[in-house]
Amino acid sequence: MTDTAPIRAGITGIGYSLPEQVLTSAEIQARVAGGSGLQLPAGMFEQITGIQTRRVAREGEFASTLATQAARQALAKAELDPFDIDLLVFASASRDVVEPATAHIVQAELGSRAHAFDVTNACNSLINGIDVARSLVLVGRARCALVVTGETPTRAIRWRVESLEQAQRSFAGYTFGDAGAAVVVEPVSSGGLLDVDTETQSEHWSVGGIFGGGSRHPRDEKYTYFEGDGSALRGVFEKMGTGILDRVRDRTGLVWDDYTKVLVHQVTVPYLDRFIEVTGVPREKLEVTVPELGNIASATLGVQLARVAVDLHSGDRVLLIGLGGGVSVMTMVWEKS
Questions:
Q1: CATH topology for 8-188?
Q2: Rounded CA gap, 120 and 140, in Å?
Q3: Quick check: pTM over 0.90?
Q4: What fold is seen in the domain 192-335?
Q5: What is the pLDDT of residue 10?
Q6: Is the pLDDT of residue 308 over 50?
Q7: Closest by alpha carbon to 326, among 300, 297, 304, 299?
């Protein structure tokens, strides 16, 4: 009789991609003001958000483009060929087309032959996709999974507003930036994805989003832009509180000092400052990306993970905290093998 170690699923490769085009908050403000005739104080967008720059996909660059670039990098880090993967999950709030799944477009570019499908859950899409891949690896339905995101939310910016009220409803869109990220999930002998938790309050689904393209508003231009109440959304997350973080601590026994890094979705600098105040996470544990890249939706945690991974060693732990419209909060604990 031989002892068989339990299967663990872990992250073995991480990649990210950024469009070359850089757009400053001052340039966005000038374009919005110029196209709408609004008189706005100089530097207002940057002052309110703390965002200085973001990357913007050019014409001919799509969500699949950014995802494919990140995928190739992640596969190289894991020393894998596209034909090694048997599951490809495109997990993003953005997509190339409504039908078919953007995962197929990414797969066609990579040349792989994996089972491919999409997962979408606003800014938590990538972390949800990783959890799906982890689950399928653990039950033996997948051996090597590639989870990718390509986010192009700048395509949903409303550049011309007709009133101050409309500008306020559209303001969250001016925080957006574009990016891609990818993660390889495979069985590992040690470490791996140790803990996952979620908390969802779907009654708040209408607080913010892009409400066109589906059966409610299939071809209405009015609903093709991001609209929402940023203050209301922030209030919802604050009311949800830190219960999910308390549960993670109780289950794992891990406290802030046990994590090498804590990665959190970032919308604006003031929002991040408030998160630090409410949760007590040490600022030095964070990987701050929002001043440079803006709100890059579900790619946020992937980009941060790729950046910190180069300095991680076996046994180092990372806590990922996702915040998504709908609304949902998600946590994931990863220990490097």
A1: Peroxisomal Thiolase; Chain A, domain 1 (3.40.47)
A2: 23
A3: yes
A4: Peroxisomal Thiolase; Chain A, domain 1 (3.40.47)
A5: 98
A6: yes
A7: 297
